[in-house]
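Review form for a predicted model. The reviewer records the input and the model, then writes brief findings.
Reviewer: anonymous (R2)
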Amino acid sequence: MSHPPTPPVPGLGPAVAVNPPALPGAAAERFRYSFGVRTGQVLWVSGQVALNSGGEIVGGEDVEAQTTQVFENLSAVLEAAGGTLADVVSTTTYMTDRSHSAGINAVRTRYLIGPTPPTSTLLVVAGLARPELQVEISAIAVLGVN
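Model under review:
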């Protein structure tokens, strides 16, 4: 899915959609969103869930397996924009049960190994886009800082 660039953001430049083919594009097209939007060196990454490229849920009821897929999806968006997880400066995590915190954090510590840990917001929510999903994470990255 490709959209024309939006007008430049003062001090940052034009906003450009980042939609890697490794992610399921049908929902993004249907609901008109981008997996990422890059403006200059800043990349905003939409909330990622445990879906593979075919739109199938990965991990079943295993929150660590779901979180691993979430981080793989985040990585795909970052790499498509020329970055890595080390460039992430902020995350927002949504989980459907407080008991998932330890499993999510176990995966998070394996993936977020850059020199500066990102800021983090954690919310417990009543549900996500599909009832089987247990975790969703969005991110902001400043590309090339680490």
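Findings: Residues 51 and 57 are 5 Å apart (CA to CA).
Further findings: DSSP finds three helices and seven strands in the chain.
Recommendation: see findings above.
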